[in-house]
Amino acid sequence: MSKPNNEKGSFNIAPITQALIYCRVSSDRQVVDGHGLNSQELRCINFAKHQGLTVAKVFPDEGISGKLFDRPAMQELIKYVNDHPKERYAIIFDDVSRFARDVKVHLQLRSEFISKGAKLMCPNFNFEDSPDGEFAEIITAASVQYDRQKNRRQVVQKQAARLEAGYWAFGHKKGYKMIKDPVHGKIGVPDHEGAALKEAAEGFASGVFSRKIDAIRFLQDKGVWTKQKAEKYLDKFTQFLRDPYNAGFIEYVHPPIWNITRRPGKHTALISLETFELIQKRLRKTDLNQRVRVDTSPDFPHRGLIICADCKGHLTACKFKGRNKQVSYPRYICHNATCPSYNKTISAKDIETGFKELLIKGRMKMEIDLLLKKMFDRTWKDEVEKIKETESLLEQQKRALENKLVELTNMVINAKSPAVKSVYEKQVENIAKEIEGLGEKSTIGLDMSIPYQTALDKATLVLKKPDIAWEKLAVHEQHGLFFFLFMEKLPYSIKEGYQTAEIPTAAMLFEDFVASTTSLVEMPGVKPGSKTKPFSHCSQD
Fold first, then answer.
1. What pLDDT score was predicted for residue 534?
2. Strand 526-528 vs strand 535-537: parallel, antiparallel, or unpaired?
């Protein structure tokens, strides 16, 4: 029976002449602060020379803080030893804590290496093959584990205290960056992506984006989430919408050991509480009444928007071939076997013609033009002010980043260590990208009257002539317009056509709003009129 390949009775009894060095740091900060890989490597190399050993290879784990199987260099080291079964190596590491910070992992690694004929060595600890030596080794490893667990407990306590005080205690959130504030310490402020995320969230809350996918595509146009298809970001966007942090609150109830219930945060909110609650209300809905089919085509623009008046189920669409097999006719049909209208088809032309008549009927009254413009002016003025505030913040961020870029550039020039230099160069590259991104978001020099007039024309067209607006849009844009104009999908009866007596439209809601608020708002140039003349123009002083 053969004996294991270890120091006690091994076939490989060749003396150890080569060393493999393992060094590890758990963060980039340790590299920059001088407690990094270079200092460990130099200490281990000097120790190997003192022992008369030649260093065969160095295995560095930089910025790694995790369990055994999360450390790539350690896995590479084990593989290297396995790939050289005829060689005996000394495995040298700077400190027991660098080898493993868990007793179980320490013993597992120790057993793995010794079974291959390797020997563990450390400048500040003597591994002895004796009961007393093994006892001291286990006690040292246990002490390292205790220090790690105690440090983690202290970190958790400090993080919990920060959370309870209204501060986010972890990494930055999407749309934010963490800055050092002289009063609050590390605190989140919106970054260059924050403005786009704010607009997307508010658009989803108000219905401008009828679906999450539309908001995500808007964000992609703004340079947010661009590496994958929009569909891949649905979960991330949903998580963003559900996060109270964006409304200025702190909450961390999962895992249960934290149980930090919702409280006002000290950071800058992206959206208002009212907007956040409206978003949650939309997310809680089943969305059955506003779900848009992904296979909608120009041939059937109303598919997914029309339901059967009898059973309230969706009308599907397909093309039927007539007697002339070369010609097909687009038609809508109810496939609910229990419905009185089951398998009865409706011409697509009837659906489209009736819908156009419905849009014409739902045009906003001409007399409201002036009020619409006045309300739009006020809203646009508020938006311009917000843009100016954002521009000021972007300029401050840009100046701060440019100053930091100069400092880091000088550090790169003065850095002697290649590892430290590499870290600085990476930071310089990231900051340069941030500055470039801020420049793309800048609105300096833009004529705001152009987007104003464009937006006003679009808003006016949608409310005054929705039928014309509908014809100018692509099919997916038509669906967005549909859910702006109507609160739910439209029932269609084979006998009676569209049944919309109780379904409000955007124009009707706007007119109701005008009727209820006009008397409360002073508006130059407009005064209440009679029932036959709702508004009349008056001269301005």
1. 38
2. antiparallel
CATH number where 39 lies? 3.40.50.1390
Residue 93 has pLDDT above 50, yes or no: yes
Residues 145 and 209 placed together within one structural domain of the fold: no
**pLDDT tens-place string over residues 244-275:** 999 999 998 776 667 788 899 999 999 999 89
- 286 versus 96: the higher-pLDDT residue is 96
What is the per-residue pLDDT across 167-216, written as a single tens digit (0 to 9) for each? 998 888 999 999 988 888 889 999 999 999 999 999 998 888 878 888 99
* Phi, psi of 120, rounded to the nearest 5 degrees: -85, 135
- 260-264 vs 249-252, strand pairing mode: antiparallel
Q: Is-contact 322 329, C-beta < 8 A?
A: yes
The sheet that has 18-24: what strands, in order across it?
A: 54-61, 18-24, 89-93, 119-121
Number of folded domains that form the chain: 2
Both 113 and 193 in one domain: the answer is: no
Q: Which amino acid makes up residue 339?
A: C
End-to-end CA, the chain: 112
pTM for this model (two decimals): 0.41
Segments forming the whole domain that contains residue 77: 18-149
What sign results for the dihedral spanned by CA atoms 533, 534, 539, 541? positive
Beta-carbon neighbour count of residue 330 at 10 Å? 18
Same domain, yes or no: 120 and 226: no
Phi/psi zone of residue 259: left (φ > 0), alpha (ψ -120 to 50 degrees), beta? Answer: left
Q: Which of 285, 314, 346 is the last residue of a domain?
A: 285
